[in-house]
Amino acid sequence: MKIAASRASGSEKYALYEQWLRAADSSIEVVDLYGMDPDAAVQAMQACSGLLLTGGPDVDPEHYHEPEKHGLCQPPDAARDAMELAAIRAAFDRRLPVLGICRGAQVLNVAYGGTLVADIPTAVASALPHGQIDGVDARHAVEVEGGSLIKKLCRVMDGEINSAHHQSVERLAAPFMVSATATDGVIEAFEWADGTLGGKPFLLAVQWHPERMDHASPFSLPIAQAFVGEVAAYEFLIRR
Fold it and tell me: Is residue 23 within a helix (H) or strand (E), and if so which, with residue range?
């Protein structure tokens, strides 16, 4: 089974995504979209049965119509922004399962009309440490919404996650609902507000990095297993 990924090569940390997915199903093959233009990425996705949006630099605030936030953001990667926004549209058109992690969650929210907190320490009073500390992921508590997909998959109402971001969802896009939050109110996960009604495909976005957590954590491998299971179901439907 092939899963398109916004980035699955480069520094060593990106290899962890594929290792994490293959811990759920050893047959997974990751197709790296990084460096492709939007048309090439959409074409490459024709051979894939799922889309993984990985971590990385800040989304250009031009995409959510708040250019005044540029001063709080890292230099944008215009090519990656354009490619991922095209890939998200293509995934929805084809009803592909989609999983967004960290930046991946943020770009999903932007693609569907939401906005981002440009810098959590600046914007959120009494914020927890969400960014890395001396190059090491921070850790903090997370609270799960009852009835959410995260609750169904992880089977817990709270726990501890890792954290390596300075941006987050601000206004959640209309199609989505909050699945989990940090105790300071920062949105840590979201999903479709109406589940998969109306033929919507699987979609889950998490702000933490499950691929960098102990796989025994309820917030790690169960997410990979659920996503890979949806990819397998999609593969079966289109290949039969």
Answer: helix 12-24
Which residues make Cβ contacts (< 8 Å) with residue 238, sequence separation at least 6? 49
Coil, helix or strand at residue 101: strand
Instruction: Classify domain 2-239 by CATH number.
Output: 3.40.50.880
Structural contact between residues 2 and 49, judged by C-beta atoms closer than 8 angstroms: yes
pLDDT digits (tens, 9 = 90+) for 110-120: 999 999 999 99
Segments in 46-136 forming alpha helices (H) = 78-94, 103-111, 120-123
In the predicted structure, residue 70 carries a pLDDT above the cut 80:
yes
Burial class (CB in 10 A: 0-12, 13-18, 19+), 151: middle
What pLDDT, on a 0 to 100 scale, did the predictor assign at position 240?
66
Residues 193 and 177: beta-carbon distance below 8 Å? yes
Catalytic residue IDs: 102, 209, 211
Statement: residue 67 has pLDDT above 70? yes
Query: Is 26's pLDDT higher than 70?
Result: yes
Q: What token pair was written down for 92?
A: 């929805």
Strands (E) across the chain are located at: 2-5, 29-32, 51-53, 98-101, 116-117, 138-144, 158-163, 168-169, 176-182, 187-192, 203-206
Global pTM exceeds 0.90: yes
